[in-house]
Amino acid sequence: MRQAIIPFGPQHPVFPEPVHLQLKVEDEVIREAIPAFGYVHRGLESLVSIRDLHQMVHVVERICGICSMIHALCYCQGMEELMGVEAPPRARFLRVIWSELHRIHSHLLWLGLFADSFGFESLFMELWKIREKVLDIQEATAGNRIIVSVNVIGGVRRDLDLSQRKAMLDDLQEVEQAVRSVSGVLLTDYTVSRRTVGKGVVTGEQARELGVVGPVLRASGIRQDSRMLGYAAFNELELEPVVETDGDCHARCRVRLREVFQSIDLIRQAVSRIPEGELSVKVRGKPEGEAVARVEQPRGEVFYYLKANGTKNLDRLRVRTPTFANIPALVVMLPGMWLSDVPVVVLSIDPCISCTER
Amino acid sequence: MQGEVIPVNVETVLGEAARAKAEGWRLVTMTCVELDAASVDLLYHFDRDFELKHLRLTASKDALVPSISPLFFAAFLVENEIQDLFGVRFHGLVIDYGRTLYLGEDVKEAPFCRYVVNDSGDQG
Amino acid sequence: MFKMTRNILLNLVGPRATRRHPYVVRPPFENSRGEPVNDMEKCTLCGTCAVKCPSQCILVDKPNATWRFDPYACITCGVCTESCPSGSLRQRNGYRSPVCEMVPVLLRGRIKEGKPKAADQVS
């Protein structure tokens, strides 16, 4: 039995973003996997010394090109805690609506990439066709397809009037029907099951010890979702975390698919309960002190640490994105897999490397 | 900041981390904040059932901090990143990239450190 | 095993899923963002837009009464338009089409006569 070291390189057709894995392989079976990244490090955290508090919202939005609004939401929540303001109720409901739209489009993107990782290109195209409708909703209401730029410290910048809300609900009805018609393929197709069931298993105990977050954690049976903290308007909506117990790639796929339907339901609840009121409060003064903010991104829990020293620039901004917490799980998941399973397993943690490296 | 903040030093940090692990806390992340030209603040953030707890370790930039990656495996990635960006060295890392995770092999300075003391003694 | 067959057959005989761009162009949505446009008749050259811009693409030179804008650094966030006190900035609808040469926008304004200050009046 001879060992070979295969660089599962930064450039691979299955990865949306570059991450490097050094795989020690013995006759097609992986024995050890060591991750490495750093190919897209932009050093965005060091921009706090140049851009002031309000300009940093736009920098923080651009950390990730998939979950951009939720980064801005976490930053604004942390700053609102530091400056002692609270966003008005209407703004909190609007933030929920746009966050859940982001979650739907991110999960549809991942489902498409997941199908592409084992070669099912027609399913990939179908799912991304459905995703285009969600992006059209975001452009029609907020102005841009993904980097929607609706959050400011103290509230939101854009409003949703009655006709926009009705159009959004009609479009979401079509999205839901389309996803339901395709979900049968993902859940019960024979070839999909052969490629994903039993691969990359993480048990509940291992998940808790490794500190994984997000759908990877919920697919291993642990009922934890940062939306249960009740930030934005989530404490006024009915939310039950989606949990599966198998812990393999197929379970993670099921969790994300069910979360798409859960997000559509949350948007319907938010639209029916949204109160009237102003969109943002005026924020004055310079912050001082430390604050911590946590929000549920599509990939898991994102953690922001903000330190301010009384000037208009922050002292330190630290962002820990969920993929950063999920990558050590790859070191445990990959040994024992075949080399051809590596793309499927790595993609099942939903790697967003541009978030991870900022 | 929400959550209790417990000050530790280089000798007690492993003991506090072991106690947190035994009590069921999960490591969220570690943060490094540069305080001035000579010292950094290392914060360890833990979470259990949506409750937060922090350990604050104030160390000098050339101190050798013990790594908690034997206890919390996920810490190896964060500690390697702090080694690269701030120049603080950890010993006992489970997987040590030796300051090459983000930086090239010939880079000596720490990119996120703003204070540089040059020979004439000025601080900028 | 053949669950996708129905979708594939519908796609083969049904309408196109994509638009035949550039022969068919979808008009931009009402709220789509674009670059700012400055009406120099109303602009007071206060410089608020230059201070607030997150990508620092506006340069206001008050002594020479010029307003210089780099459209290729603009991220179309709309902060300048929202913070303009005189209402001279307006955001275009929809993004610009590709260009072959990057040319910044340089507009000239008029230096308006300000109100006399209290110190001048006393003396």
Description:
- The complex is a heterotrimer of chains A (358), B (124) and C (123).
- Chain A has 358 residues and is an alpha+beta fold.
- Chain A has 12 helices and 8 strands.
- In chain A, the strands form 3 sheets. A 3-stranded antiparallel sheet of chain A has the order 1-2-3. In chain A, strands 6-7-8 form a 3-stranded antiparallel sheet.
- In chain A, strand 2 and strand 3 form a beta hairpin.
- The longest helix of chain A is centred in the N-terminal third of the chain and has 29 residues, at 89-117.
- The model of chain A has no long low-confidence stretch (mean pLDDT 89).
- Chain B has a single domain, classed as 2-Layer Sandwich (Beta Polymerase, domain 2), CATH 3.30.460.80.
- Chain B has helices at 13-22, 75-86, and strands spanning 4-8, 26-34, 39-48, 51-60, 64-66, 89-91.
- The radius of gyration of chain B is 15 Å and the shape is globular.
- Residues 116-123 of chain C have low confidence and may be disordered.
- Chain C starts with a helix and ends with a helix.
- The chains are: A alpha+beta (358), B alpha/beta (124), C alpha+beta (123).
- The A-B interface holds A 34-38, 41, 43, 45-46, 49, 208-211, 226, 228-229, 289-292, 301, 303, 305, 307, 315-316, 318, 320, 324-325, 327-328, 331-332, 357 and B 1-3, 26-29, 31-34, 43, 45, 50, 52, 72-74, 76-78, 95, 97, 101-103, 111-112, 114.
Topology:
The complex is a heterotrimer of chains A (358), B (124) and C (123).
Chain A: E1 3-8, E2 20-26, E3 29-36, H1 53-61, H2 68-83, H3 89-117, H4 121-142, E4 151-152, E5 155-156, H5 162-188, H6 190-196, H7 204-210, H8 215-218, H9 249-273, E6 288-297, E7 300-309, E8 314-320, H10 322-333, H11 342-348, H12 353-357
Antiparallel strand pairs in A: 1-2, 2-3, 4-5, 6-7, 7-8
Chain B: E1 4-8, H1 13-22, E2 26-34, E3 39-48, E4 51-60, E5 64-66, H2 75-86, E6 89-91
Parallel strand pairs in B: 1-4, 5-6
Antiparallel strand pairs in B: 2-3, 3-4
Chain C: H1 5-13, E1 36-38, H2 48-52, E2 58-61, E3 66-69, H3 79-83, E4 89-91, E5 105-108, H4 118-122
